[in-house]
Write a sequence for this structure.
């Protein structure tokens, strides 16, 4: 019985020693193989984090006053937009992204400076929209995270 267990154990080790390298080899050559090691490029990760810039109310107002080729984009719902928004802003609810993106792409040039905003610091709609626009190729995307709340508190131009 003892010899049988030792023999079975040796056979199991041989099988594992053959199967694991074989499986790894096959996986490496498959186009849809599972990555065994994740290589990270810290510089690339930093660039992805900085795909759009976060700006303060002061910088947003500076852009509002100085840049001709700018577009403020309100990521809130149409209802909230209609209650009040930054002067000249268009409404592009982040929740309706799939419904509205084709028209946006047709009418807004890729090199235009876009400033996304939503309600305020607790709202993530502006950053979500900014991220999606960058992924679609927009180069000059700013995210005004303090948003409508701060703009309104400062008494800045609105409609």
């Amino acid at each position: 019985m003892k010899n049988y267990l030792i023999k079975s154990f040796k056979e199991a080790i041989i099988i594992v020693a053959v199967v694991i390298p074989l499986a790894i080899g096959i996986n490496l050559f498959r186009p849809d193989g599972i990555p065994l090691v994740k290589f990270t490029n810290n510089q690339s990760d930093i660039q992805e984090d900085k795909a759009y810039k976060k700006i303060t109310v002061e910088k947003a107002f500076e852009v509002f006053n100085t840049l001709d080729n700018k577009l403020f984009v309100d990521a809130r719902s149409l209802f909230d937009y209609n209650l009040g928004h930054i002067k000249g802003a268009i409404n592009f609810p982040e929740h309706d992204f799939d419904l509205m993106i084709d028209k946006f792409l047709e009418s807004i040039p890729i090199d235009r400076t876009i400033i996304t905003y939503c309600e305020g610091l607790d709202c993530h709609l502006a950053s979500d929209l900014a991220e999606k626009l960058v992924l679609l190729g927009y180069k000059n995307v700013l995210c005004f995270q303090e948003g409508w709340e701060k703009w309104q508190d400062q008494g800045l131009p609105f409609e």
About this structure: Residues 2-29 form the longest helix (28 residues).
